Amino acid sequence: MRKFFQEIKADLKFKSAGPGQKLSEPSRAPKEKPKAEAAPRPRQGPTDEAQMAAAAALARMELKGKAKPPSSQEAIRNQVRKELMAEAAASEKGGSADKEDLAFPDTEAAVRPSVSGVFFTCPLTGAVVRRDQKEKHIREAIQLYSSTDPVAASILEIHTFNKDWEKVRLGVETMAKYLDNIYLHPEEEKYRKIKLQNKVFQERISCLEGVHSFFQAVGFETRTLPVPGQETTEEYYVLKEEMLTRLEDLKDYKEQLLSSEPVRPQLDRQLCVFKPSPEAARFELPDDFFNLTAEEIKREQRLRTEAVEKASMLRTRAMREKEEQREMRKYNYTLLRVRFPDGYILQGTFYAREPVSVLYSFVREALRDDWLPFELLGPGGLKVTDENLAFNECGLVPSALLTLAWDAALMSDIQASGQEQPASPLKPELLSRVQTLS
After folding, report:
1. pLDDT tens digits, one per residue of 172-202
2. How far apart are CA 373 and CA 408, in angstroms?
């Protein structure tokens, strides 16, 4: 079968008109008659539409292999992960097994709710944690890393735990200026002292979490010095004398400070595969999926009941649009299932505001042959073709069941070849952990 796929891909690569063409309208493939009654069908060449669709898939596959070189932030994170893996393995024995359990529970039947919650993967440790535990986990990871590289750890604190990005930008630029003045004018003593009660320092820097750890890590120490012409004293950050012989280090610290990025936990898809089930369209979601409190959810349910009574009332277009916008903001995440023609179901968790393109990529990565063109049909059989739209703009929140449809012409060509087809288009490693949806 794979050899036949390769022949089709080679044929399409030379005949196709180019990527970017829309898929043909999905149609039901003709049922194959029993071999004893059916006359052998001569193999036909792929249709023009099949050629164009498969060419687009080939182009995506070729682009997929071009990886971007690692950035400096990625290098920092790789180092963090290397330092933490040994301790994580010791303190969280069986952590990898836990991660597998999140994606594929050992129980034969999936339990209520449909997922136990929303989970994230920490980019520093690789651990999978619940949404309400992710910040605590990152803090502990950075704190642990500070014993290995206190400068890098403090920089991560500054960029990660201060939510006002404009304040972070302004504060980081001011701190970088302090270091730059020392590097460019090492003989000037005034640049090696920073008054902590200085208005600029208080307004731009002192209010940020992690900055004091940074100054201490790069070689400053706190001193109480007399104020010239007065009998009072004030606190200063003063650069240690030994750092004057390490000016290049200060320059490197400045560059790290300016180029660093916040640690962003990645939403864990919690990929699951289920056997064919009549319960595929039934969802039971935990509170994590809603941008509402438990009380607000109950209130929304009551309002929905009241809305039925008001359904007969006329509403203006502006009223309807305002109501739709309010509905879209209720959900942070969405649980999506894709049902394949053989009945198997692929499930994953997504942000409600992610584009539809990520779902197409999610499905394609689960296929044995990711070049095969397909379409996704939403509730009611409507095609989900605009991959730039967000899930909440397509009505695919907080959950939805979609149906995968292969390119009908290409499937006819494959069936006409007489080649044996695999039992399922999904990867064997996913099928080995298939669950029962109840």
Report:
1. 999 999 999 999 999 999 999 999 999 999 9
2. 10
Q: Which residue, among 369, 365, 375, 404, has the nearest Cα to 21 in the 3D structure?
A: 375
Residues 6+ apart with CB under 8 A from 173: 258
Task: Give the lowest-confidence range in 256-260, 283-287, 352-356, 363-367.
Answer: 283-287
User: Which residue, among 131, 284, 157, has the nearest Cα to 213 in the 3D structure?
Assistant: 157
Q: What is the DSSP string of 59-98?
A: HHHHHHT-PPPPPHHHHHHHHHHHHHHHHHHHHTTTHHHH
Strand partners, 159: none
Sheet holding 233-239, edge to edge: 193-195, 233-239, 220-226
Could you give the CA distance from residue 199 to residue 195 in angstroms, rounded to a whole number?
A: 9
Indicate the pTM of the whole model.
0.67
φ, ψ of residue 436 to 5 degrees: the values are -105, 125
Contact 167, 208 (CB under 8 A): yes
Instruction: Give percent helix, percent strand, percent coil of the chain, each to the nearest 5.
Output: 45, 15, 40
**C-beta of residue 44 within 8 angstroms of C-beta of residue 413:** yes
| Residue found under tokens 């539809």 | 356
Q: Could you give the CA distance from residue 149 to residue 213 in angstroms, rounded to a whole number?
A: 12
Q: Say which residue the tokens 């809305």 belong to.
A: 307
Assign 245 to helix, strand or coil. Answer: helix
pLDDT score recorded for residue 33: 44
At 343, which amino acid appears?
Answer: G
Give, as one character, the DSSP assignment of residue 330: T
List, in sequence order, every residue forming a beta bridge with 367; answer none if it has no partner: 426
In angstroms, the CA 218 to CA 54 distance is 55
Asked if residue 250 has pLDDT above 70, the reply is yes
